[in-house]
Amino acid sequence: MSWQLPKPERFRGLCAELDARPGTRGEGLKQLAGYDLDSNGLHRLARSVTAALDADAAAPLARLTLGLVSNATTDLLIPPLIGAAARYGIALSVIAAPFGVTAQAAFDPASPVLAANPDVVLMALDYSALFGGDALEGDPEARVAAALADIADTAGAFGAAGRATIIVQTVAAPPERIFGSLDRRQSGTPAWLAARFNEGLCSEVVRPGIALLDVEGLAAAIGYGRWFDRAQWMTARLPFAQDLVPLYADHVGRLLGAIRGNSRKVLVLDLDNTLWGGVIGDDGVNGIRLGQGDPVGEAFLDLQRAALTLKRRGILLALCSKNTDAIARAAIREHPDMLLREDDFAAIQINWNDKASNIEAIAEQLSLGLDSFVFLDDNPVERDQVRSALPQVRVPELPRDPTDYARILLTGGFFESVAFSQEDRDRAEQYAANARRQTLLSRTRDMGEFLKSLEMSAIFVGEGDTGWQRFTQLVNKSNQFNLTTRRYTEAEILALAADASVLTLQVRLADRFGDNGLISAVICRPAGNAWEIDTWVMSCRVLNRQVEIAVLNEIVRRARAAGIIRLRGIYRPTERNKMVEAHYERLGFSPIETTDSEASFGLDVTDYEARTVPIAIDTKRPEPA
Amino acid sequence: MRMDQNTLMGKLTEIFRDVFDDDDITLRGDMTAKDVEGWDSVAHIRLMLSIEQKFGFRFEVEEISELRNVGELAAAISKRAE
Asked: What global pTM score does this model have?
């Protein structure tokens, strides 16, 4: 994992120093996880994570309990998983099922895995667990169907027993061939069984609440010959070569981060020697290296194409370069081989300020937290400056040779995601529309006039089975406009949505510049004849638009319909959510009680008079996806 | 060329310290799992794999369970480095 900083000589010393430090140690753990750690390093880091968890000092890492079901020696797997998860903002604890008791772990409520009520269950079963050593035996179709049914039943049982998201794995077939190339299409061979199984896993087993870990893809990228190690399997029941455990653990960590909603969504790019070869200020538009016919120019073209692909999947691109703005922009506009043009970037900072300040400016402009940023720069000094000033930003190491830039960007796991929604596809356009709204606001003098001119309309969705993925993302990703900062897995959200006594409200907002999509999420839980507002989050893209008033109007309307007479709102302060400290009072709630950890507020539903807002309420339900 | 015994023991000491997270480990030829805290069957696998990685060779399957003291380990490594 060359995109990580090399492990320092005194890594264990750094861990020990962190263990002894008073106060929360989550930031330190995440920083230590940022190194390219071998198994021993990950084992050491895991001890520090576990110690921090035991001392309740792992914040701001999110606690997550992982149930592990595996046909391998889990003792050699668990510490690396814990170490790698810290890289993705998670303080992991792992409960492993005893060797080889998959079904019991899922179906017996007293099993250690179920008793731990895990947030996520990883079913780390490989080819040998599913198909054993026998090829060309029995009915091949039936063997695949049985293996799939087994996985689906077990995953279903884990899901039904608790709130867990389940991770299932594709399998790699051992590289030994029976016929040769014929194996690929001859039913009953390992290659055929694995391919059929993987296909079925994707199409029949994976669904909301069940995520996929593509182990087969990882093994293929490494090479099966290196992935499978018979000696290690025979001596220690290691399902793949032990020196690859850190890479496997990193892939699990990425997925856990994505399930928790910790995915990053902004790629900030440098220009000189990152998007093109050479220095535009010195070399000029005709002197920089970019384009076909020159291996160096092709390497930069490759990176631009990779960035453009990420943009298509909803990752926002931004520029941060030390240059004279006019010169750099002219090159972006005029160079015939540029794939990325000005309007591909949601934000552009080209000036002589330090990069950390510029990245902060971009974060402010986009109303996004720095923890959703990745920064790509060829210059080690700039990378170092950003890493130390803004530790929340992920800054991959880059080699001197640009040939691998694109591959590092697309294999480093910086933008791992468990789903690809329409919202993701539309995001780039939404941010562009936001820029147009800001221009309109600066031209309109009066805020009220401005809001009216936006021609907003809101849609409230409280049932149906669409949008819950984005709902979960929003709940887990929102830090600023978030009253309680409670995090939920998608499986938990689906359970709440299905519970008729709980209000789960999706709020969508459109205006004349476009559809903002799902921008606010509310969960109310019943408490006698009152509703307690368990969760209220909103995207900062729609701040100051009076959306929260429209949402309260809707909550009250639904509360009345449900015979509820009182609302109880809670504010739990964090380092990030001061913005909504006075949220409930602004909405007309009266304070009930304030302690160090939370403040509560009440509102009488019967007296409430709906306030007029410049937002039309669209009552039609969106079409199910 | 035969690896210098001191160099070998130095590298091996580093590996032991890394695997068992203990900077005070000083190796002796007759040391066994009983003498090193945490040297259980799982750590033994990690130890053997770390040696393989550091010295760039593979143990034979039989050796992995049979090599149980530091002197034998050093001899097995030394044999490869000849």
From this structure: 0.78
